[in-house]
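Quick one: Abhydrolase domain-containing protein from Aspergillus heteromorphus CBS 117.55, structure tokens please.
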Amino acid sequence: MVAGEILTCVAKYASLAAAVAVGLYATLLGLLTTETVQSHAVYLHAVQMTWFKDLNVPEAFGFLRNQVTPFTIPSADGLPLYAWHILPVELYRQHESALVAEPPGLVSDITARLAFRLLRDDPDARLVLHLHGAGGTVGSGYRVPNYRALSAGQPDKIHVVTFDYRGFGRSPGQPSEAGLVDDARAVVDWARTVAGIPPSRILLFGQSMGTAVSLAVSRHLALQSPPVVFAGTVLVAPFVDVATLVSTYRVAGVVPILSPLARFPWLFASLQRFIRDKWPSKDRVAEYVRTNEVNGERYHLTIIHAEDDYDIPWHHAQALFWHAVRGAVPGGISYDDLELQKLDLRRDHGAAGTVVEWTTEHGVIREQILKTGLHDVIMGYPVITMAVMRAFEAASQ
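--- reply ---
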């Protein structure tokens, strides 16, 4: 009798706990349909991860004195976007005494600094424009080793400019799809007009959410008349669009957000109508490639992902590669047909993963899938250095 009462009590509380969990989940879904909560959930801009360090003291992040120049770039609507200009280490060594003599910290006029002149006045200088992922700031997590990997291939030539989108770090405002794209365009304009670097010596690097921003900007400029095409675009841990991402996304690779609803297509489709910022990267990459093919413009696109990425599954990279190739093939190509052709094109590097390159008369589309690298650690890997070197080399030929 006592055992039966205990089982009844346990069942009662289990049912209550389940009801509470379902109620909380339903509340979460309701909140996610609101603009403010959705913005925080998508961009995580309130999660800075550098609260106890001063971004205006880059030395606290492991840089040499004045290797990094903090400055601001005005957005189209007048917001000061916080940015770092990072000198490659060998170039820094060559000018160390003069650089150390300058005052450190945030500068109001970057054009007056030696680091800027070393970028602007060198006809062989290369520039990587870095577009980071959701959450954090220019100094967060694995972004600092990422900057070193980007310039490691030519440590006397490859500069890096990274910035915080509106609402991130020290950049004011509220993030949105249109706002982030405008911010990236403002940074590109700064690189071309203020620093005077031609597109053939500029590479766009995006990671995670930054891949969506990179593709939006690349597509926009390719559609201009005359078109603007960079030396290359490197995408690390991309996603095809927000709707597909949320159907698979798990916080820390464990806690699902909307993936349980994917089992109920009608309900999931209803919730998708509330997604404000859709980031349709699959459509943008296809149009970017198709436009360059029609215009006869040279382009170099690299897609990199790790199989053990638990934040964004690596099948997103495979799908994005397909959409890119679809843009390069007149009349398109089915996913299954491409998979068959990839069997002949794929190069197996063993524990280092696989590589597939699709080449046309005008461009190269490269898919590189690593066995390991997670979502962020991969950013400091030599594969990043090689991707940058490969794109700049192709642009110089």
